[in-house]
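1st attempt posting a full record on here, be nice pls
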Amino acid sequence: MRTLFIILLAATSIAVGAATLAAFGGLDDSKSESKEITMQPSTKTVSRSGYNIAKLRPEQVELLAKKLSPEQFRVTQKSGTEAAFCGNLLDNHKLGIYTCVVCGLPLFSSEHKFNSGTGWPSFFQPFDRDHIAYVKDVGLDMQRIEIDCARCNAHLGHVFEDGPKPTGLRYCLNSAALNFVEKGQPLPLESQPMALQTAYFAGGCFWGIEHRFQQCPGVVGSESGYMNGSKDNPTYEEVCSHTTGHAEAVKVTYDPSKVSLNQLMDGFFRMHDPTQLDRQGPDVGDQYRTAIFTTDAHQQSEAEAFKSALQRTPRFAGKKIVTVIQPAKTFYPAEDYHQDYVERTGRACHATNPWPEVFAATKSTNHDAVADH
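the predicted structure (as C-alpha cells):
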C-alpha cells in the first residue's frame, strides 16, 4: 500500500489515496531538501504520446531560463506562486494546448480545463501524465503535492483531490508557467512530438506479445487491444465469444531511427509460432490468430515480402506460415487489467525475448554487407 498524503487546501484536509497516486505516476524530490521522495521518479525518455521527455541538464535549463520574464523566472525557477485572479490565462476560453514556458513541452489541453473558482487556471488531467513530475511539498506548514514539468523541472503549481469527474483531481496552475498555443496554430518545434511510427501485431494472448515488445530497444510503447473485427468497442467477453471476429492485438509505437519494421517483424516471428492456425499453444480461437495489421501500402508490401522470405528459410521447410497480413482497422484498447499484465503480475506468457538474437543478427548482416563491399 502506497503512503497516503494529506493535502491541505485552505482549512480543509483532503486524503489522497493509493489510486490517486497511481494516476500521478511518480514523485520527485530533486528540487528541495524540504521535499521527500516517496515513489521513484519515472526513467522514461519518451512519453506515451511520443514526446521527448529526457531530463534537461542544469546548464540547458539555465540557458532556457534567460528568456523568461522576472515573474516567469520567480514562479518556474524559485517555486513561486502568482497572486490569485491575476494570471493572464485564468479566463482563457480558447481551444488549444498549454505548454511549458521554459522548454515547450505540452502540459495541458483546453478540453480538460474547468472553472474551479480558486483564482488559478485549473485542469482535471494533464495532456500526458508522463509530462508531469510530482513532488511532496512540505513548505508553508502544510503538505501538498507540487507539479513540475517532467522535462525541465519547471515549477507549475500543485494538484489537489477536489476536481470534477472523471479524475476527481484539480491541477492548479500558475499562468506564468505556461504558454498557450491556440488550436489551428503551428506548434513550435520544441512542442512537437518525435517522428514515431506505429505497427500492429497479433500472435496469441496479447499479454506476452505486449510485454516482449516493451523490451525492444527503440519501442516507446506497446498496448494490448482488439483489432479487425465487426463490432465497435468490443469487450473482452465479446471477443472471447467468437462472435466479433477481433484478434487480440498489440499496438507498437516505435522510433524508426532505432529499430526498423523488419526488426520488429523478425522479433514477432521469433516470439510465437506462426504456423498455428487460430491458436497459440493451449489458447484456441480466432482471437488468437497470428496477424500483422498494416497502416499503409508500404507496410503491407514490406510485411508480405518479409513473410515470403521467411517461408523460404530452412526453419519453415515443410511448414506453412499462416500469419494474416491485412490493412489495419480501428484499434480498440483492451480493459485496464490487461495492460502491462506480465509486468504487474510477474506471470509468464508464451512469448520469449527475441531481441538479443534480432539485433545480433542485424549486426552480423550489416558486418557481412560491409565486408562484401
